[in-house]
């Protein structure tokens, strides 16, 4: 993804032994939907299908939140796929946009969580 190699970008993985079973990336990026200047965007989150339902995604997000709090980041936001909205709501993210369509990916909403 664009920005993958930026010094401010964080890539986080979940491992079972030496096998990576889940990933997400955190990008220093702002949305004009939030007033805070201190924002990171969560992107590229995925968990291997055979590991779904094992709390890996939740643990990746919670670990990410802890890392961002150490950096005094105030807001974490994402473009959540329609099918993932419930997942993010359980982690206390809130919807702040109408539904929109990302070509070749599908319907999304913008969601955020205040970290501080």
Automatic annotation (TrEMBL):
Residues 1-116 form the N-acetyltransferase domain. One of its GO terms (molecular function) is acyltransferase activity, transferring groups other than amino-acyl groups. PROSITE patterns: GNAT. InterPro entries: Acyl_CoA_acyltransferase, GNAT_dom. This is Acetyltransferase (GNAT) domain-containing protein. It holds the Pfam family Acetyltransf_10. Keywords: Transferase. It comes from Psychroflexus sediminis.
